[in-house]
Amino acid sequence: MSTFVLPNTEPEVPINLPSNLSQEQLLSFPAFKNWIETLHQSLSTQKSQSHTFHSSPYRLRKIDIQSVDFFGGKRLGFVKLQAEVSNDNGEKLPGSVFLRGGSVGMMLILQPDDLPEGVEDEKQVILTLQPRIPAGSLSMAELPAGMLDDSGTFAGGAAKEIAEETGLEVPTSDLINMTELAIPSASSDSDERLQQAVYPSPGGSDEFIPLFLWQKRVPRSQLKDWQGKLTGLREHGEKITLMLCPLNQVWRHGGRDGKVLAGWALYQGLKQEGKI
């Protein structure tokens, strides 16, 4: 185990590292950089006299890195840490954190192109079914999740499966960021600067998920073909598959997935406000 002082902190904040993690690896880990910057900004808002904790502010006193996971043996993927955040009265805030960073969720809606523009009839949402061992599931129905690659295209295992099964690719130019439309950005230094995204488990993880909307009108015959093909039934050994679900039923069929419920709520709310 080794210890170093978090740069640019006053009073100093010591960080205790396990033997398999270096200072350079931690400080260059995007999830850690984003989390520590966000936390420092939030703690600084206590300077305002109107802040709930102004009279007895909390501060970050130390960080213990408890364990790490590497992807492919080299790339830092997950970090489990304990952050000591307390005030001078000895009162502490829960600080057990699982760092993994952000991803993106996609609400992909298909509709027959022989219907009038602007109607909600016959819309279908693409869901993925795949094993999610942390949830104890071998077949979790959820909105496709992944990342935006360097070319601005939806990428990852779900995106690959969608492209293989339907030929559809999702470019950034066609995406609507629903969370950005719904959640205002920080307007002053006294505001917290959280991501314009959904935090599915803020009591234990930094994970944040911007939710994007992509709608495409397709020939009815094509959609009918996909409905017959994308049923969620997996071939022997297949890890991830797709299903089409009526938009007005997606909250029921995908109700265990927070991305589905958040996407559904954002879609309905933004529709009501005329923003999409």
- How many helices? The count is 7
* Integer average pLDDT: 91
- Mass-distribution shape: globular
Helix content: 10-25%
The low-confidence parts are: none
- The share of residues in extended strands comes to 25-35%
Largest sheet: 8 strands, mixed
In total, how many beta strands?
A: 14
- Quaternary state of the chains: single chain
- SSE pattern, N- to C-terminal: EEHHEEEEEEEEEHEHEHEHH
| End-to-end CA span | 52 Å
Give me the secondary-structure category: alpha+beta
Radius of gyration: 22 Å
Description of the structure:
There is one protein chain. With 276 residues, the protein is of the alpha+beta class. The protein has helices at residues 23-27, 30-44, 157-166, 178-182, 220-229, 250-253, 258-272, and strands at 2-5, 14-17, 59-71, 75-86, 92-93, 96-99, 104-112, 124-132, 137-142, 145-148, 154-155, 176-177, 211-218, 241-246. Strands 7, 8, 9, 10, 11, 12, 13 and 14 form an eight-stranded mixed beta sheet that branches. Strands 1, 2, 3, 4, 5 and 6 form a six-stranded mixed beta sheet that branches. A hairpin with a 5-residue loop joins β4 and β5 (92-93).
